[in-house]
Amino acid sequence: MGDVVNLKRFKKRGEREQAAKQAEANRALFGRTKSERARDEFLGERSARQLDQHRIESGDAS
């Protein structure tokens, strides 16, 4: 016969691991200084502007 497994303990361990992953993601996302957030926003806007500048617009819709 196999070993008896406490499913509640297994479920709690999985939930703790998931919470730890979420906490790590939150620290990476929200644990930044104001200057880091401003830099990321600036780089995002800059890349969007460059992409728009290189867009080819033609009168033909074919």
Give a structural overview.
Residues 1-62 are annotated as: Disordered. This is DUF4169 family protein. Residues 33-62 have a biased composition (Basic and acidic residues). It comes from Bradyrhizobium uaiense. By secondary structure, this protein is mainly alpha-helical. The protein has a domain at 25-53. Helix content is 71%, strand content 0%. The protein has helices spanning 7-30, 34-53. The radius of gyration is 24 Å and the shape is elongated. It starts with 6 loop residues before the first helix and ends in a 9-residue tail after the last helix. The model has no long low-confidence stretch (mean pLDDT 89).
Compile the SSE list and pairings.
Layout (H helix, E strand, L loop, with lengths): L6 H24 L3 H20 L9
Describe the structure concisely.
The protein is built from two helices and no strands. The chain has 62 residues and is an all-alpha fold.
| Terminal residue distance | 69 Å
The largest pleated sheet is described as:
none
- Give the C-alpha Rg: 24 Å
Low-confidence stretches: none
The outline comes out as: elongated
| Proportion of helical residues | over 70%
Structural class: mainly alpha
How much of the sequence lies in strands comes to under 5%
According to DSSP, the number of beta strands is 0
Q: Overall mean pLDDT score?
A: 89
